[in-house]
Structure formats: C-alpha cells, structure tokens
Amino acid sequence: MSEFDLVVLTEDLVNSRLKAGDVGTILTVYGEDKAFEVEFATLTGESVAVETLLPHQIREIRPSEMMAVRDMTLQEPADS
Q: How far apart are CA 21 and CA 12, in angstroms?
C-alpha cells in the first residue's frame, strides 16, 4: 500500500466514529509498511478523522467493491 491509495478500515475504532468498511486515503507510510496515516473524509471532502493505523486495521480496496453512504451527523461521537 502506498501514499494516496484508497483503503478500507477492517475494524471499528473504539474512540472514533469510524466503522469497519469506511474508506480512507493513505497520507503517509511509516517505516516499510509498519504503520499508515489515513484520512477519512465525507464525500464532499470534509475531513472526519486522521488516524495512524497498523497494517491489520486496513486493507486494499477490491476492484469488485463499491462505496456506500452513511451519514456522520446521525452518529454520536464516542465518549472520551
């Protein structure tokens, strides 16, 4: 996986509104694929979150997949 690749989150993030299946863009690759900084955004480009994730938390998109829509305003943020 490389910078600017689209990736799929493989698990819900406990302290975030992000859920498995959300699509993000890799911004930075750290140390030979040891970690990735990934930005998740709305379809209009508004950033929702930037997370540093481990390889098991994301995967490459598959050619047969299509994006789905979920409204972030309908979700309560996780308690801190």
A: 8
For the chain, how many residues are written? 80
The pTM of this model reads 0.86
Q: Is 74 helix (H, G, I), strand (E, B) or coil?
A: helix
DSSP 36-79: EEEEEE-TTS-EEEEEEE-GGGEEEPPTT-------GGGSPPPP
User: pLDDT (tens digit, 9 = 90+) per residue, 54-77?
Assistant: 999 999 999 999 988 888 875 555
Q: How much of the chain is helix, strand and coil, in % rounded to 5?
A: 10, 35, 55
Could you give the maximum distance between any two Cα atoms of the chain, in Å?
Answer: 37
What DSSP character marks residue 3? T
